[in-house]
């Protein structure tokens, strides 16, 4: 039994999916990669996400210490996002998922 943020998980996969699961979190992590991006840059790379959803997902990733948020003291406000070292450990995992998807889609095309 795993415990994280007051919740209990029966296996590590359940915890993993709770942290990075969903439609948008893996894409946000993937697009940040080794870069630092502003909110508008992220929004541009994910045109189908709403501003509200992007904000919610970034806050959740920041709370889980996967994303850094840096606010510049200027007008207009400037905010940049980057992956933490912990967040960067997910990049090889996501890369493997991308490779799997390519192989899977190719195998379906062969049928």
From TrEMBL:
Annotated HTH hxlR-type domain ranges read 11-109
Q: Which UniProt keywords apply?
A: DNA-binding, Transcription, Transcription regulation
The reply on keyword Cell inner membrane is no
The UniProt entry, under Gene3D superfamilies, shows:
Winged helix-like DNA-binding domain superfamily/Winged helix DNA-binding domain
**Keyword Transcription appears in the UniProt entry:** yes
The cross-references to Pfam families, in alphabetical order and at most eight, read: HxlR (PF01638)
Q: A Gene Ontology molecular-function term? A: DNA binding
Provide the protein name: Transcriptional regulator, HxlR family
């Amino acid at each position: 039994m795993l415990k994280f943020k007051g919740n209990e998980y029966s296996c590590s996969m359940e915890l993993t999916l709770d942290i990075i699961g969903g439609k948008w979190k893996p894409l946000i992590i993937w697009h940040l990669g080794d870069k630092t991006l502003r909110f508008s840059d992220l929004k541009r790379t994910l045109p189908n996400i709403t501003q509200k959803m992007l904000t919610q997902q970034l806050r959740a990733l920041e709370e889980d210490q996967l994303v850094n948020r840096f606010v510049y003291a200027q007008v207009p406000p400037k905010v940049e996002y980057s992956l933490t070292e912990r967040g960067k450990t997910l990049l090889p995992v996501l890369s493997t998922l991308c490779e799997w998807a390519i192989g899977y889609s190719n195998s379906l095309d062969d049928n």
